[in-house]
Design brief:
By secondary structure, the chain is an alpha+beta fold. The protein is built from seven helices and nine strands. The relative contact order is 0.22.
Length: 212
């Protein structure tokens, strides 16, 4: 949609997830839901490196569940975790090579009222907006993302109701940290976030001093 800039092309994702992760920060995640539009700026992601990454869903090889990660780049991989929420990822690297990026947090831009209804939360002040999309489960719920609805969806297609666009926003400083919420390969510096952004998950990291 022109309002949110140009659609991110497939070749953008056809690279190392670490490089894509950095460049994905500041882009806009968009959901078209009938006449309604939801949009939010990507402020935190995690890279997963495929069959060489013990924390990746593709580590054990290709299965029916994780097949999207082994397919062409630019497709949504959605999984259910802890029995209560979904997580949105995008496939990276060439067809046949596993790799992906987890969307951890976004900053709401358009459609906050609908996001709040989907999350069943009340927004009484600007500070409450963080409740909508700070964390992968919150993000997915706010955008109505489920495995049944979105797994395998082409995030590079203008016909898709879920896609990523580039509105020209320029990111300042990027922080790189270890991934969180995992036990395997937990020390790898594969979490990327916009320094100082109030919508990243984890209060301590919003103002962390180290970065690049």
């Amino acid at each position: 949609m022109k309002k949110f800039g140009r659609l991110i092309p497939r070749e953008f994702y056809d690279r190392d997830p670490r490089r894509v992760s950095r460049e994905l920060l500041g882009k806009v995640l968009v959901r078209r839901d009938g006449d309604n539009v939801l949009a939010a700026r990507i402020v935190e992601v995690e890279a997963y490196l495929g069959e060489d990454d013990a924390a990746a869903h593709s580590f054990a090889g290709r299965t029916a569940r994780n097949a999207v990660l082994f397919g062409p780049p630019g497709y949504a991989y959605v999984y259910f975790i802890y029995g209560n929420h979904y997580c949105l990822n995008v496939s990276c690297l060439p067809d046949g090579v596993a790799g992906g990026i987890l969307f951890r947090a976004v900053e709401p831009l358009v459609g906050m009222e609908q996001m709040a209804r989907s999350r069943n939360v009340s927004i009484n002040s600007a500070r409450d907006l963080r409740k909508l999309t700070s964390g992968p489960g919150r993000l997915a719920e706010a955008f109505g993302i489920t495995r049944e609805r979105d797994n395998g969806k082409d995030l590079t297609s203008a016909r898709s109701d879920l896609f990523v666009a580039d509105d020209g926003y320029r990111v300042g400083r990027v922080l790189t940290t270890a991934r969180i919420g995992i036990t395997k390969a937990a020390g790898l510096p594969l979490r990327y976030l916009i320094a100082g952004n109030e919508f990243v998950s984890g209060a301590k990291m919003r103002n962390a001093p180290n970065g690049s």
